[in-house]
Amino acid sequence: MPPPHARFTLVLCFAAALMVACGGSTSATTSTPSPLTQAQIQARYAAAAARYNQGETQIALTENASCDAASATVALGACQTALSAQRQLTIAYDNALRAIPFSGSAATAAGRLLGDDAAIEKLLEQAATAPAITVIATLQEQVIPLLASAATDAAALRQAIGLPAPA
Question: Which listed CATH number (1.20.1300, 1.10.10, 1.20.120, 1.10.287) goes with 38-157?
Answer without folding.
Answer: 1.20.120
